[in-house]
## 1
Amino acid sequence: MKIVILSRSSKIYSTARLIQAAQARGHEVVAIDHTKCYVSMEKGNPSIHFLGQEIKGVNAIIPRIGASVTFYGTAVVRQFEMQRIFSANESQAITRSRDKLRSLQLLSRAGLGIPKTIFADGAKNAEEMIHMLGGPPLIIKLLEGTQGIGVILAETEQGAISTIEAFMGKEIYILVQEFIKEANGADIRAFDVDGKVVGAMKRKGKEGEFRSNLHRGGTGTVIKLSVEEELSAIRAAKVLGLRVAGVDMIRSSRGPMILEVNSSPGLKGIEQATGVDIATKIIEFVELNAPLKIVDDVVGY
């Protein structure tokens, strides 16, 4: 099988692990920088080109699309889909997961636990938003933030008002969420592949840090999920249409609450914490779903 990993670099840990796992199972695999691809459209002939050559003979793609290039990256994924090439995550699901507001709306409608969240247009609503959430402390999030960037803890009402007014004064959309005190600066990352949780870890922020992201100095340790937590993680990925996903949740007195569902979850932290070969789990999933027959011969990259 020929597999293309859409990634900015083959040296990124997650990409390198996927390449290693695919090669170990006898597949031809290459990492292609999706930002350097271009798509061509004409009657009955959607094509993708990279470094001056058309990409052909591909059985499957594994998108590793960064948040900063979601629009262009998903356009490239969509072009592969136009060629009926299997994608580990579909373009629409990636786009859906990157929209934090839409994701929360879908999770809420599906009856999944989420922190109470307010979205409004206009700084004049700041006090009302704060009161609807029961007062400070509160979490204020940028709609576009990743890896803990753009997430602020407002510990006082005046601090929350000032922060909300500052963002809205610059016409920057934000979400305001209740602060779950009992989470104690920790969250859970459940890694879902094809409707199954294949690994889970507890992430704890460093001393004095309420954000638990490993990129911000947090630590990860293996954890056993409760039945409710496992089912919540599986349902959250399914609601957003993701077949490979990192589901972030926190434990609360009201049960598990979903914070975010990541369409390009990193492998390093979860593999090191759990000892599970998750890269191989992803390749096995691709093997089960990607068609082996290719009409066109391989031309190159």
## 2
Amino acid sequence: MSLKSLSILAGRGRGGETEDIPRIDLAPGDTLAVVGPTGSGKSELLSDIEQLADGDTPSGRRILLNGEVPDRMPLGLVATLSQRTNFVIDTDVSTFISTHAACMGKVAEDWPGTVLVLANTLCGEPIQRRDPLQGLSGGQTRALMIADIALISDAPVILLDELENAGIDKHAAIAALADRGKIILTATHDPVLVLMGRRRVVMRGGAMSRLHVLDASETAWQAHLSELDEVFQFARNILRGGERLPAKGLPCHT
């Protein structure tokens, strides 16, 4: 289907109270951060979207597509990357990518090569064509799936659950997905990821309690936190590569 909008209509919190945010409308290219303490209902909100809730989930929310209640689940509407992503198929990376591309009717190019170019910009240890899927690390697995979703999948809605725990380049991952006009919802505790989108919904007690729009002050915070995050990534990449941090040349940002 051609998705022009996805709308989240309020349900209720765990105490039965009506949610404070009556409606959230999302269009292709939008990124919405879902924030709140552990157990606040972030994953439940993503689940409601994944199953196109129609008042039939514990939250009582309803999900609209193009302003209407869908009469059925559209094929390939949502791609989800959860905190635990594991392969059960026993094959290698190249065969997996080629098979998925063929299933999507995309056979005109070297999809394994194209996908791996992107995937290997996201993770530290390169993924090879003949690597067994079940032998990939957690970070490699999520990098491969993000590249696959970005380049092969036609799903217009992407759900990401705590991307920061994947050990990958989160900035590049979000950019790769957003650049393709997909609606992205990311449940996260990471302040850099939170501020990468224009809006964020705050969860409390299973309910949507606040909806914030990025302002000028937070835009400045986003730039500063991104600089600090670059320093952290710099140190992480050196240390996990087996080297020592330099005595001089520490990246400094003010």
## 3
Amino acid sequence: MAAAGARTRLVRLKEDLAELDGLVIPGGESTTMTMLMQRMGLYDSVRQAVRDGLPTLGTCAGMILLAERISDGLPDQPGFGILDIAVRRNGYGRQVDSFEADLELAGDERPFPGVFIRAPIVEDTGSTEVIARHEGDPVGVRQGSVMALAFHPELSGDLRLHEEFVHLVEGRAS
């Protein structure tokens, strides 16, 4: 994000959320991330901050956490319930099924190099705006000040989506 013009800091405690202009929820393992956030007392604070309008970018597991509906998750796996989407965890397969592919970005004719690692599949986009597609299927959505991507843009070397998020944050701050 720094390469896209943002100043960054880690969020490990709920106090770290104070005075943030935007939040990135990265990839990883969504059930473990949820469990750790709950254990650290961060889960409810993050969910409330995003519900209150904090611009947020979720990638891969971050998309899963932001979704209203999660299929094939653990029966008691909570999501933040922020985005009107349904996702299926690891929908593109296991770690060995990871791949790279050119993606279509809304409003941009240049392909975007998508990196998919145990990525979720978006099964229903609900009322969200689709901002990225892979072979016609949605892999990136936006709803208000929240963006979510099924892939890892930070591994692509292409800053367009990070820059779009920084502009979203700046637009809210002004």
## 4
Amino acid sequence: MKHSFRVNFTLLLILILTAKLSINAQDISIKIGFRDSLSSKILNENRTILIHLPDEYNEKQSYPVLYRLDGNPELLMETISTTNRLIYGDELIPEMIIVAIENVNRPRDMWPTNTMYYPETETAGAKVFLDFIEKELIPHV
């Protein structure tokens, strides 16, 4: 009896772990949004963005846009969860488009100026990154 329980429990555990791995391996477009890329002349590189549209997205309707820095699928999911609670649960904010900007070089993009804590080999590029958001990303979205 104990042996049968252990075997069944082990098989169930393997099934759960396998299902979780297959869910994590799915494309982001199936779960929470889609990937897009933008060739930036300001940053002189290609930037990947993750975009989540409202559940009842209508192309003819205008939506506010939330830009999420340090974008990755996990942080996008966390942002979607938080905004969904504020939209549908608390009814405090309107439905919105969420754009997560994936990092390429976080220190360069986020540091506004060089300091003694910042490596001198890098150039602080927050101003340039903000220019990219304002002049390229926002018009692209």
